[in-house]
Automatic annotation (TrEMBL):
Gene: mca
Family (UniProt): Belongs to the MshB deacetylase family. Mca subfamily.
Record text on subunit structure and interactions: Monomer.
Primary role: A mycothiol (MSH, N-acetylcysteinyl-glucosaminyl-inositol) S-conjugate amidase, it recycles conjugated MSH to the N-acetyl cysteine conjugate (AcCys S-conjugate, a mercapturic acid) and the MSH precursor. Involved in MSH-dependent detoxification of a number of alkylating agents and antibiotics.
EC number of the protein: 3.5.1.115
Classification via InterPro entries: GlcNAc_PI_deacetylase-related (IPR003737), LmbE-like_dom_sf (IPR024078), Mca (IPR017811)
Key word Ribosomal protein present: no
Annotated positions binding Zn(2+): 14, 17, 145
Record-given protein name: Mycothiol S-conjugate amidase
Keywords: Hydrolase, Metal-binding, Zinc
Catalytic activity: mycothiol S-conjugate + H2O = an N-acetyl-L-cysteine-S-conjugate + 1D-myo-inositol 2-amino-2-deoxy-alpha-D-glucopyranoside
The protein's required cofactors: Zn(2+)
Lineage: Bacteria, Bacillati, Actinomycetota, Actinomycetes, Micrococcales
Source organism of this protein record: Cellulomonas alba
Keyword Phosphoprotein: no
Free-text comment on the cofactor: Binds 1 zinc ion per subunit.
Length: 295
């Protein structure tokens, strides 16, 4: 029996992001005995009700925060992971031309060091070997997703440095930092083509066109996690976010048999590593597992 206890921290912007980006990966590692902690930067309290079948949430921002806390707890149970709120306030997705200013006090407006301090403290306490988050674009242009990247990157860089964030716990340097790439155009194009081949039409044509029009550069995938056994847990977690996820909507538009045939992995980009590893990888803990670092 080894004393190895691997730890994975997944840093996300809003409740529901953990269920749509890398969810099956976290469920799989948790089932294997890895200690998995999802960190949610904001309460998601400025999210609209996106599921048209849900009805209304009373009580404004406060009411939405309460509902989303309950949804998050159910999603965490479905994935078998632990979850921690950083406590920042959702910035909302600004819409219009010109874009309106962000609301005062929201996550995206907090100065970087102030926003990163609670995550540094949590990293020093939880001591993750591996951290996942979004790439510098946020994956899509929501100000909280961009801020989530900045904060996770800053905490990854600084948590091991005794001269930084003094008074926020004993230094701990996580070993690897990954960006989630489950929303890649390559994945949706492959699914789209397979759905068209199987069913004649696919719901993803417009999404692919609009995503293509955003000109978000495709990032390199270094690491593919074979986690299809946990797609059902991912789906349960998605459904737990009932205000956000329509069970007949976008996230469930891929026939699950088609998905299992053509895309059985979740994708990541290794952004930073303090251990030697060989690319491509199929394990976020490659280079860590089985070494003296894995404790
Ligand atoms: Zn989000």
């Amino acid at each position: 029996m080894s004393a190895e206890r691997l730890r994975l921290m997944a840093v996300h912007a809003h409740p529901d992001d953990e269920s749509s980006k890398g969810a099956a990966t976290t469920a799989m590692y948790a089932a294997q005995g890895v200690d998995v902690l999802v960190v949610t930067c904001t309460g998601g309290e400025r999210g609209d009700v996106l599921n048209t079948k849900y009805g209304e949430v009373a009580g404004g921002v406060e009411g939405m925060r309460a509902v989303r806390r309950e949804e998050m707890a159910a999603a965490a149970a479905a994935l078998g992971i632990r979850q921690h709120w950083l406590g920042f306030v959702d910035s909302g997705l600004p819409e219009g031309d010109p874009l309106p200013p962000l609301p005062e006090g929201c996550f995206a407006l907090v100065p970087l060091e102030e926003a990163s301090a609670p995550l540094v403290e949590l990293m020093r306490e939880f001591r993750p070997h591996v951290v996942t988050t979004y790439d510098p674009t946020g994956g899509y242009p929501h100000p909280d997703h961009v801020m989530c990247h900045r904060v996770a990157f800053e905490a990854f860089a600084a948590a091991g440095d005794p001269d930084r964030y003094v008074g926020r716990g004993e230094p701990w340097a996580p070993l690897k930092l990954y960006y989630n790439h489950s929303f890649s155009l390559a994945r949706f194009r492959t699914l789209h083509d397979a759905i068209v081949a199987a069913h004649g039409e696919s719901p993803f044509g417009d999404w692919i066109d609009s995503r293509g029009a955003m000109e978000i550069p495709e990032r390199p995938v270094t690491t593919r996690i074979p986690c299809s056994e946990f797609f059902a847990a991912r789906d349960d977690a998605l459904r737990a976010h009932a205000t956000q996820i329509d069970p007949d909507g976008f996230f469930f538009a891929v026939p699950r048999d088609v998905e299992l045939e053509v895309w059985r992995t979740e994708e990541y980009e290794l952004a930073e590593s303090r251990v030697p590893t060989t690319l491509p990888e199929d394990d976020l803990f490659a280079g860590v597992r089985g070494t003296e670092l894995a404790r």
